[in-house]
């Protein structure tokens, strides 16, 4: 949803009056975006007041390569449903909607802290046409630096047979 700011101006040129108007569309604060800082806050639209109906917001957290994203929900107040099919926050491990699902959250139970396996998390907030609540607030930061190493483990097993004669 966009807010509209209209500006009007009247100009008189050589005895004629011209009316000009400008329309600016202001983005919806809190509705998605790409986040590249090492830490930040994600909020649902209109947080901490009730979010609007029929909203979909996509948030992408993208950190430098070799870093992980740590995401911690500090507030969650969405319409509750057993399979979170009405209003929900969906978190995926990667940069796209098709990446592995970490979780789909609704209601008011805070999820456990989330850690990505790469440098990105893809998050969708979705609301339906009925119930509206306060929404969510989540903090993200750099989790860990990823170091990929290969380790080879050698295991030697000695079998010793002892025969005792009596």
Automatic annotation (TrEMBL):
Residue intervals of the CUB domain: 31-143
TM helices/strands, residue ranges: 7-27
Keyword Cell wall biogenesis/degradation: no
Alphabetic keyword roster: Disulfide bond, Membrane, Repeat, Transmembrane, Transmembrane helix
Record's signal peptide: none
Protein name: CUB domain-containing protein
Species for this entry: Poecilia latipinna (sailfin molly)
Lineage per the UniProt record: Eukaryota, Metazoa, Chordata, Craniata, Vertebrata
């Amino acid at each position: 949803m966009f807010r509209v700011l209209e500006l009007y101006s009247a100009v008189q040129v050589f005895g004629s009056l011209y009316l000009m108007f400008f329309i600016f569309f202001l983005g919806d604060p809190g509705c998605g975006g790409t986040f590249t800082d090492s830490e930040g806050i994600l909020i649902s639209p209109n947080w901490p007041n009730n979010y609007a109906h029929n909203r979909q917001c996509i948030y992408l957290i993208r950190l430098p390569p070799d870093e992980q994203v740590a995401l911690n929900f500090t507030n969650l107040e969405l319409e509750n449903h057993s399979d979170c099919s009405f209003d929900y926050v969906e978190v995926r491990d990667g940069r796209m909607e098709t990446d592995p699902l970490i979780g789909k959250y609704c209601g008011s139970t805070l999820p456990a802290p989330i850690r990505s396996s790469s440098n990105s998390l893809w998050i969708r907030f979705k609301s339906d046409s009925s119930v509206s609540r306060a929404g969510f607030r989540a903090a993200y930061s750099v989790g860990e630096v990823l170091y990929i190493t290969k380790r080879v483990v050698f295991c030697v097993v000695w079998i010793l047979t002892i025969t005792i004669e009596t």
